[in-house]
């Protein structure tokens, strides 16, 4: 299918067989390249011009799109964005991505290979797209918890669940990805789709993800990423800068929230950077798969 260009995983961490020198060499080279990546960090360890390559703890908390902020303020501003867009969120997703978000989400579910014996947590689950897919894939038999910081998004999600007749095995919980309201080692699978970009303290959220997963549990993050091909990147940048805020204004009467969306994508860490931070949060075997020329990536890791 034209939409997709599925690049093979590349390993960020172990998952290596003993004595597999070739793989070890590849991983060593990867880390060397990562350490040489340009990284704008001031003396205080705060992000400067770009957070995308910054190696530090929670640098994204200093930015709301292109505007300087604090982690607390960013959380409030993100809450405002999703209060404002909640009712039109699903329609806007279809319009902005030409329906591609559905294919990206389907791809995520196929990678998870859900089983009805597994316990799922979908963080920043919003209006339930991932939870509904997991519910369907497990025949409604697996317990699924949707956790989101924003009650307006959860309200839309719960109404959608009722419309679909999904009343069992689906819980809606208000909570912050940075401090999840669940005990240690509760879930087999943690998902976060188009949510991590909005979290102020990403490294805290990754640690929390690791904490609530059972040993051997898996982490999946579906998120906008960065287009590598310079020509395509130019076209994609032009589309996101000129078209997306206009659709936001016309459909949701809210150009600012969609301007934030565009800016937050640019500020999101590069794939290799996020991979290293997954390892720092306690995960193993971190891998990434790019979809649609790098517009989107799926990060996966094991506890
Ligand atoms: C772009 S929506 C994604 C919704 C859904 N996962 C999907 O793929 O359609 C981002 C969601 O992240 C939630 N969010 C933002 N910051 C969060 C945080 N710190 N903890 C939990 N959820 C958060 C927002 O409320 C919003 O519902």
Mean pLDDT: 84
Spans where pLDDT lies below 50 across 5 or more residues:
1-51
Q: According to CATH, what is the class?
A: Alpha Beta
- Ligands and ions found: S-adenosylmethionine
Largest pleated sheet = 8 strands, mixed
Give the name of the CATH superfamily. Answer: Vaccinia Virus protein VP39
Structural class: alpha/beta
Number of domains: 1
| Helix share, percent | 40-55%
Would you kindly provide a written description of the structure presented here, covering whatever features stand out?
With about 300 residues, this protein is of the alpha/beta class. The chain has a single domain (about 10-300), classed as Rossmann fold. It has 11 helices and 10 strands. The protein has helices at about 20-35, 70-85, 90-95, 100-110, 130-135, 150-165, 200-210, 230-240, 245-250, 255-265, 270-280; strands at about 10, 65, 65-70, 120-125, 145-150, 170-175, 185-195, 215-225, 285-290, 295-300. The strands form 2 sheets. The chain has an 8-stranded mixed sheet, with helices on both faces. A two-stranded antiparallel sheet has the order 2-3. Strand 2 (about 65) and strand 3 form a beta hairpin. Helix 9 (about 245-250) runs antiparallel to helix 10. The longest helix has 16 residues, at about 20-35. It is globular and about 45 Å long. Residues about 1-50 have low confidence and may be disordered. Bound molecules: S-adenosylmethionine. S-adenosylmethionine binds near residues 176 and 198. S-adenosylmethionine binds near residues 82, 125 and 198.
């Amino acid at each position: 299918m034209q939409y997709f260009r599925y690049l093979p995983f590349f390993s960020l961490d172990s998952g290596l067989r003993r004595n597999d020198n070739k793989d070890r060499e590849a991983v060593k080279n990867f880390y060397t390249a990562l350490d040489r990546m340009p990284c704008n960090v001031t003396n205080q360890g705060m992000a400067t011009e770009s957070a995308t390559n910054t190696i530090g703890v929670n640098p994204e908390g200093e930015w709301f799109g292109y505007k300087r902020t604090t982690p607390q303020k960013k959380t409030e501003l993100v809450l405002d964005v999703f209060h404002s867009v909640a009712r039109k969120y699903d329609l806007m997703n279809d319009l902005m991505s030409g329906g591609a978000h559905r294919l990206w989400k389907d791809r995520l579910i196929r990678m998870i290979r859900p089983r009805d014996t597994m316990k799922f947590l979908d963080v920043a689950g919003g209006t339930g797209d991932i939870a509904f897919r997991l519910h369907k894939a497990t025949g409604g038999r697996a317990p699924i918890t949707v956790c989101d910081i924003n009650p307006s998004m959860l309200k839309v999600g719960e109404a959608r669940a009722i419309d679909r007749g999904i009343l069992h095995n689906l819980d809606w919980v208000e909570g912050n990805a940075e401090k999840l309201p669940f005990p240690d080692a509760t879930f087999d699978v943690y998902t976060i789709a188009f949510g991590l970009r909005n979290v102020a303290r990403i490294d805290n959220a990754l640690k929390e993800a690791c904490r609530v997963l059972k040993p051997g549990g898996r982490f999946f993050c579906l998120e906008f990423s960065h287009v590598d091909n310079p020509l395509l990147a130019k076209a994609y940048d032009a589309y996101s800068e000129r078209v997306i805020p206009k659709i936001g204004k016309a459909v949701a009467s809210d150009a600012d929230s969609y301007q934030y969306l565009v800016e937050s994508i640019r500020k999101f860490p590069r794939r290799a950077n996020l991979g290293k931070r997954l390892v720092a949060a306690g995960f193993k075997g971190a891998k990434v798969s790019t979809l649609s020329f790098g517009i989107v990536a799926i990060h996966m890791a094991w506890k």
